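Q: Please design a sequence for this.
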């Protein structure tokens, strides 16, 4: 899994994630999201368009970030693998999914 962080105007952080998001790669995503939160953005957009595999470990990291970070959290461009898991868990609307 790879991650890229870029900042937009008005303290919006975009975290692009690609590859497999599973129990092995989830700690890396956690570290990236924790660092972004430490910088106090207004909003974090997690771009999951490049995800090829998405497990419950990824869901856990996103939900934990939403709970512990003051910023708004949104999923942008969720890949089919992400949509499947989120829909199965009944979380389709819970993380404010946005298609761009």
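A: Design:
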């Amino acid at each position: 899994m790879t991650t890229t962080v870029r900042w937009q105007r008005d303290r919006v952080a975009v975290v692009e994630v690609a590859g497999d998001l599973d129990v092995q790669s989830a700690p890396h995503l956690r570290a990236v999201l924790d660092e972004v939160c430490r910088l106090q953005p207004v909003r974090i957009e997690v771009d999951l368009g490049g995800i090829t595999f998405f497990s419950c470990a990824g869901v856990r990291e996103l939900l934990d970030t939403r709970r512990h970070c003051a910023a708004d959290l949104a999923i942008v461009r969720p890949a089919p693998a992400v949509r499947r898991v989120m829909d199965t868990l009944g979380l389709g609307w819970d993380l404010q999914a946005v298609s761009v």
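Q: Thanks. Anything notable?
A: The first helix runs from residue 26 to 38. The longest strand covers residues 43-54.
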